[in-house]
Amino acid sequence: MAAKTAKKSIPKKPFRFTVDDLNGYLFIGVAIIVFAFFTIYPVVSAVTTSFENYKPFGSEWVGFKNYLDTFKKDLFWKSLKNTAIYTVVTVPCSLFIAFVVAVMIMPFKKKTQSLFKSMYYIPAVASGVAMSVVWLWIYDSSPSGLFNQVLTLFHIPTQNWLASSKTAMLSLIIMALLSGHGSSIIIYIAALLGIDNTYFEAAEIDGATFMQKVRYIVFPLCKPTTLFLLITGIINSFQVFMNAYMMTGGGPDNNTTMIGLLIFNNAFKNGKYGLACAQAILLAVVIAGLTAIQFKVAGDDVEY
Amino acid sequence: MRKNKVLALVLTAVMTLGLVSCGNQAPAAETKTEEATPATTEAEAPAATEEPAAEAAPDTITIMVPPVTADYADMLATWIADFNKDYPNITVEVIPTSWDEHTEKLSTMAQAGEAPDIAEVSYSAIGTYVDMGVAVNIADYMDLSDYDQNALDYMTLDNTVYGLPLYLTIQALGGNKELMEAAGIDVEAVQKNGWKYEDFMKYIEKGTTKDCFGFVFANSGVTTADFVSIFGVGAGITSNFTKDLKYAYTSENMLNLLKAVEEMTKSGYMPNYAVEAGQRLVMLECGQTMITGKAMPLFEGSVNKNNAGIADGTAAEGSVEVQYVFLPVPTMENVKESCFGSVDGMIALKNSNSTDEHLKNVCAFLDYICSGDRVAATDNQLYLSCVCKSGREAQAGATLDQTEGNAAATERCISLVQAPPTGITAEQAANAKTIMDEVIVPKFQALIAGETTAEDMFEAVKSEAFDLLGEDNCETGFIK
Amino acid sequence: MASGLYSQHLDRPYVYKIRNLLIGLVLLFCAIVVLFPLVYMLAWSFGPNLETASSSYHIFPTTWTLDSYKAFFDFSDYSWKWLFNSFVVALATVVSNVVFASMAGYAFSKINFKGRNFLFFMILVAMMIPYQVTQVPLYILFVNKFKMTNSYLALILPGCVTSYNIFLSKQFFSSIPTALIESAKVEGASQIRIFNSIILPLSKTVLAVMAINTFVGTWNTFFWPFLVTSQEAMYTIQVGLKTFKFANGTLLSPMMAGACVSAIPMFILFFALQKYFLEGVTIGAVKG
User: Fold this and answer.
1) Nearest Cα to C202, choosing from C229, C181, C230?
2) Chain B residues 12-41 with CB within 8 Å of chain C
3) Beta strand B289-295 pairing with B163-176
4) Final residue belonging to a domain, choices C68, C89, C113
5) In chain C, at which end, N or C, are there fewer CB atoms within 10 A of the end residue's CB?
6) Which domain holds residue C11?
């Protein structure tokens, strides 16, 4: 409906300043000012820098050199591939886990619900550094690492978790899947609580089963939330670098070098800021493409 | 009633921000005075002479340091007070950082054109700042005669000195004397004369028992780089570049090194899994390994402290009494013995208010903290000897908590260190760093995990190096 | 109960109870797995102030003391100030996000103004640029142009309205029927009034989610506060924890104790907002 009215009104009075326009700008005013200063300015600056051999005092314009250098680098493609693998596995799985847990929490009384919600949310508040120390112990390659102790219990040979190309990426994925669903779960719960009971009552009268209710009521009504979590999940996942930075340093054999880590290293360790900017812009283009596809697939029925 | 809710929230937001901006006023005022300084300095610059005149213009110097030693920040505060007796016009502002994020913060500040005037760096990072155009040729502003040439060489790129050394650390191996003697090793002879790689392999075989490895090297994640540099020296690669400025990791020595590492990992005298940096010393203290690396002379203090803690329960769990011995790196066939050395120091950096007069002040303070009692106090805590004359004089009186054998071995190793060749350009240094970070270290990790062979890795390093530096600039023969 | 989704078996209390029990057990098992690292962190924060070999790591320390907590508060004169700073910064960020991001989210979802799609697209694109490359220009802006090092403003402003929160609230508001707003408009209500008296009451849940997520996010931010503070008195707790860690080598227990101390305010906020998370909002009820 909203889309329809928009299409109608624009060609009719193209230059009139409507009440809606005024209200719209009023509502987004503060956000846009903040955005212009602290987001647009740095982004524009990063874009120009990507065409420079950046030096704090006197950069020189090098055109597309940073981009061409990036394309020539095998490591760039490898890190893009690593990031894609990581994203393709973790984002949908995390989303699924968060959705299932949120739905499973629903049948309980308020007290039980809040207990479960806190249990699942709490891991989100723990600081990253402390958690990475715990995970380093869990993945310790010596026989005293937690996972290795578990394996020994079942008479399976111990693994070189983070230090072997076979298991390093898997280890990072397991770590992502076993932590950090807290905020997705509470966002889903907020969406589930927003579903009006009358929908379910109507379905009840039609004799719908539980799965049918999930399929025809919960799914479509949670679509905006799912789209939000999917898009922000992909954005975060493509930019991820803390796990590789803390846990593996990108190794072994660059098998866990994420594109975020590559950009980080170029910007802060190697002093190649122009190159880092070019790689960041390329990454943003990839993410923007994926996001556009998701919006297309999700369709216009998000708004009603 | 609800109508006012938004208004109330907006007001709260505005008030919080307002409150917060009040707190901002004091620091803002400070920055203003700072901003004003370069103008005054410039105006008086022609009048200034060698001697800092009493009426010299006020100036503010910023220095950014990680905890070089545990109480470095406190010591720095007293040095600044002493320095101000001679230079009352100079205010020194300290920006403390942590080791982990020092590089990131420094790099961000430098790229923003707001670098601190002085910062602690490892010699291998100097190239980055030279390349960025923010490093200062300090020879223009001060006299370098106090400092040892071989240590200054580390702070030099393309024949320009960019900073002053604090210390030269030697990194090699350390061992448990009792266990080594039980394995039939003449520890004193090794400390005095060094040892051959073949013998080392035999010894670690003998030292391996059910509960104890012959040798443990911390090799997880980025610490892999230490393995390459320390054993690289044993294979005859003392620096990224040879004397005639050819890239060294493409030489036959490299292949020998890689084969040796392959042999060590497959031998079973070493753990076949990755060992965390924090673990190696604890393993030594608990008698779980005979020899460990990388090790520094400084570890003697940690081990002694741990020994003392066994009685009162402050030692690591499972500790045994250990006598620590500092050991040289085993040398391979046809290679002249050497030792891996690394220099950490302070460099001077340019920022938006750097004038000639300001840089002169910066270098005066830089010289002050890198020499005399100051550097002696720092190096004593690190079990290292100073690399400048004034520091050595100040250090003469101090005795270290070190056995005679270890002291002699330390001194011998220091004398074996070969400084990097002079004339390396910033670009060469940057390329060498790229090859190290993007190819050598990652492939080396795969080699240790048994997932690539020495030959394959060697080829990968060669192809990247030929690509970046050109085949003509890479050494492919044997470095003697 | 709380939702009509689970209305099956309501007539058979026995089956109903067993079903809920089974679901509960599965949830409990998963929760234990997820909570494990945290339990470990909490347990070891009471461990001795010593180095420990990983070969002797157990899930629980062998001796329990409060030494590590004492070490944390004794370490710096500013330990409490760091907590206070973090609190001020996080609170200001939360308030400004809840107000301004939700207003913007509402406009993007329900007000038909010119350039809406373009501006929203820009906000999304901005999220896609990794922070690594925007830190330098932002640093130049704050240090060189605004001269704001060591100030609360520098800590708060960059995060005071985030794209993430605008997006979150937009998605949530879009599921509120437009008819509700249209009918209010017909009755002559202004947009501010509609937002205030219809939308906000319906959105307590999402605002609470936004608040807690923003608080946690701001509280745990390390790199930006680390860049713009150089005086100990202006550190946030995360920056302070780092200096603490390196003064003591890599001792496990003090580090875990620090992490626990820094997590406590977030627990408090979480429980304070609990009741909003649970308030299922029935749009139908408001309509009727």
Assistant:
1) C181
2) 12-13, 16-17, 20-21, 23-24, 27-28, 31-32, 35
3) antiparallel
4) C68
5) C
6) 4-68
